[in-house]
Write a structure and sequence with these properties.
The structure holds two protein chains of two kinds. By secondary structure, chain A is mostly beta strands. In chain A, 0% of the residues lie in helices and 59% in strands. In chain B, the strands form two sheets. In chain B, strands 2, 4, 5, 6, 9, 10 and 11 form a seven-stranded mixed beta sheet that branches. In chain B, a hairpin with a 7-residue loop joins strand 9 and strand 10. Classes of the chains: A mainly beta, B mainly beta.
Chain lengths: 111, 113
């Protein structure tokens, strides 16, 4: 069945350094890959997404890369700041109906 | 996602009672979703609906029921058959289509006493 694996489950980086979170998916027909950020007690917020016809997308300090052959995609955060501390979820859309989410990465930025 | 409201924000229930969580949207989105999130866990899909009067089971539908009588509303009932209902419940909407974005409501935290 559909499966999305996300690593690492926790990540600590020094303020100003880069953070990378990786996800792999099982269904080669997947065509949409969003990333969400969730602060404690709040709703997940979309921060960036990528579609299967694109290999990379950037938005200021955030970028996502997609390798369709290897079936994995990654979130890159550069020049990390304390407000980047949160739980990040990747997801992949299988077919035309629903997203499958990864299990999340708790990112901590150390001042 | 400011156009998605969930009520109440906090809900307490005694064991054996059914409870209904509200989700309303004014985004004119066709698709609506219910997720459950447990502490330190990811998001698990309970039910989803792509069109009025139609819905499908997600990965953990047992002990839950939904209805979609109006485009704007997708209430979730947590029944007494749900063995471990204490969790954070999130509603989401999407405009529809192959690569559409899902937006989340603020969530309802349900605690069974």
């Amino acid at each position: 069945g559909e499966n999305v694996e996300q690593h690492p489950s926790t990540l600590s980086v020094q303020e100003g350094d880069s953070a990378v979170i990786k996800c792999t998916y099982s269904d080669s027909a997947s065509n949409y890959f969003p990333w969400y950020k969730q602060e404690l007690g709040k709703r997940p917020q979309l921060i960036i997404d990528i579609r299967s016809n694109v290999g990379e997308k950037k938005d200021q300090r955030i970028a996502v890369t997609l390798n369709k052959t290897a079936k994995h995609f990654s979130l890159h955060i550069t020049e990390t700041q304390p407000e980047d501390s949160a739980v990040y979820f990747c997801a992949a859309k299988f077919g035309n109906e629903k997203l499958t989410f990864g299990t999340g990465t708790r990112l901590t930025i150390i001042p | 996602d400011g156009g998605i409201t969930q009520s109440p924000k906090y809900l307490f229930r005694k064991e054996g009672q059914n409870v209904t969580l509200s989700c309303e949207q004014n985004l004119n989105h066709d698709a609506m979703y219910w997720y459950r999130q447990d502490p330190g866990q990811g998001l698990r899909l309970i039910y989803y609906s792509q069109i009025v009067n139609d819905f499908q089971k997600g990965d953990i539908a047992e002990g839950y029921s939904v209805s979609r009588e109006k485009k704007e509303s997708f209430p979730l009932t947590v029944t007494s058959a749900q063995k471990n209902p204490t969790a954070f419940y999130l509603c989401a909407t999407a405009s529809g289509g192959l690569t559409d974005t899902q937006y989340f409501g603020p969530g309802t935290r349900l605690t069974v006493l």
